[in-house]
Every structure is written in structure tokens, then in C-alpha cells.
Give the backbone structure.
Amino acid sequence: MPRKYGVLGAAAMLAVTLAGCAPDSGDSGGDAVNLKVWGWRQEDVAAYNKIFQSYEDAHPGVTVEYVPYKNTEYDTILKTGLTDANGPDVAQLRSYGLLQPLVAASGLVPLDDQVKELADFPKPVLDGARGENDGKVYGVPFALQTLHVIYNEKLFADHGITAPTTWADMIAAFEKLKGANVIPLASTVTDTWMLPIQHEIFGATTYGGTDYLNKMLTGGAKFTDGPWVKSLETWKGTNKYWPPQSSGVSYADAQALFTSGRAAMFPGGIWELGVFEKANPDLKMGIFNVPPAPGAAVDKTLVPGYVDGSFGVSAKSPKREAALSLVRWMASEEFGRAYSNELRQISAVPNVQPQDNLLAQALRAYQENPSPYVTYAYFSGGSPTGWDLASAAFSDYLLGRRDAAGAAGHIQRGVDQWFRPKN
């Protein structure tokens, strides 16, 4: 059936009634079933419409409507929407600590016994959709996001540069580009949510990645200890290669510097590939991971990554069985392949290999040497979250209002209010 859905306003959607909807059934049996899938990606409407078309074709009478909201407003809208039957049937869920308020409010259906396909997902992937107190899984993870330095292949070739394999090679490349009046790194400062991402890219090897995280989780290490503080200094040490007047450079500014060819590299997430391609279809890109810094805790390149989110079922949905049927399909390789191909993302579904060469390269690198996104994935289960604390503290650090130890102390004092080490 033809797709006919667009972006609906939050107020309008919250007022929608579901009169006339079909009984609970994955296959409609002749009755029309309309499933509403809420999400925060307004730019992905066309892709999701195409993805869900294949599900509709296999389930006559079922329509799946992707209803996106503004990213910055979505969490509040979803919290309200999960309180009654007029909300979503399936919802795109934030991961890790940001999921916990919805779990605590009993707004979601536990999926452990409902979606048998979840048994094939690796535990670290399911951790992104797990309730921290009850250990149950509340969503089918949809994407892995890996963090890299994305580079302009033409600029590298024009200046005789190849993807660096040592820290010294990387710094030499930065110097060569800077000497040729090319901005080496399109880094942002004003959009503080990007700062913990940039820190992980350049600082993970200094503090030690997963090994250090495990010590932190069991009380054997803190943000204020030497390795973590030094990792901040390692990251900030690259700022001489950032854009001029970098303190005023926004996320959008940094993206534009890269896609226009004024900057040779962009430190960020693999999700940027699709964004950059749309902005400049002629841009040829490569990726590399930052080699171990001098004095690093590990002697191998680490690839930070995390689970971006999951799809869960509203406990208030009057079409629970149909919604469960849809999320079971979302755990299938068919959905995973479609998601990866249409959205140029790394699917979280096991055994789905991206067709896109750069995505495949990113996934291989992450699988070989994974590293955590510490403040977002593992210290966001309470308030204030480690991610919010780090975003603010790193901004102060870059702007000279705190030193590295002071920034680390701000994070530690905040998480000490709620975090308790595991035994």
C-alpha cells in the first residue's frame, strides 16, 4: 500500500484517538491495524516509510506509521505519551541511563520472554536497553554508533597524507595541513554534547578504555585519578589544530567546515557519514582511529562505541500483540539489513554486515578493539548524569574556567551523589 505519512506536531499527536483500531494481532486477519512508531529522527521519515513497507507487504491489513518529533522535545513528549492508550504502540527509546525513568514509571513491556530473538544479541548490546534495577530488557537495540576521525580523502591525497598508524604520524599530518592553511580538525566547542565524544576519540587510549571502566564500576578507580585526568590533557593538546576562534565554533559550523573542504578531518560518530554525503555528494571520505598517545595505558588503538537506542512496546498500547510482532521483526536480519542500507547506520542486529564499505570498516575495528563511551553509557543512571556533568565540565576546561583536575572533580562530585560501585 502507498505510504502517506508525514511529520505530525506533538500536540496533534497527543490528541489523537485510536477509535476503530483493530484487535491485538500481528497479522490482522482482515481487520485494519495501524501501529504508531514514535521516534526522534524527523529527517528519517522517508527511510522508515520504505523500511516499514516491507513489513506491511508481509502483513496485509497492518500499517506502520513512523511519527517523529523534535529531538530536543522527544523525551518529554514520550514520557507523557506512555501514560495512556493514545500514545505510541512502539517507541524509539534512548539507551542506558536515559532509559531508566521510563522503566521506573512502568511505561514499557519487558521483552525478555516476548522476543526470543534477543537471546542472540550480545550482552553489551542488550545492556543499552536494560533496566538497571531489574535487569530486564525493554527494547530491541537498533544501532551501534562508533566514534572515529572522518577524513577527506582528496585533501589527504593532495597533501601526501595517509591514515596515520602512530600518534607521531597523526601529529605530523596535522602540522602539514596546518602549514598549508587547511584546518586539520573540524572540532566544535559551543555544542557541549559533542565534547565527551571528542574526548573519547582522542583520550580513550590514555585512560585505558574498558579495563579502566571496569575498575570504576567496582570502586577501584575514579574520574579524578591520574589516567582519566591525563586523558583530558591528551585531548585538549590537539586544540592547536582546531579551527581559528574554536571557542565559538558550533556543531553545524564544524560540519560545514568539513563538507566544504576547509577542514580535512571531523572527529565524531559514524552517523555523520550519511549527513556529510547529503551535504556534499562528491565528498569522498575515509575513517581512522586515533593511535595510542604517548604514555597511553594501552598499546593498541581503541574504538569507542555505544548502543544508540532501541524500539520498545508501550505498556498502555491497546494493540500489544501487533506491536510485539513488529518489534520481533525489528530483531530480525531482514530489518537489520534494511535499517543499515536505508539509514547508512551500523545495525545492532547480530550477523548483519553493512554493505557500505566505511560502515563495515568501522564495525570491524570496533569488534576488534572496542572501548566504552563512559560518561554516557555507564554513568547516566542517576541525576546529575555523568554525560551532563562531563559536557559542562569539559566546556569549562576548554574555555579556561577549570583545569583538567577541576573538570574531573566536577564529574566525580556529581556522580558521587548517586553512583554506588558494584561488588
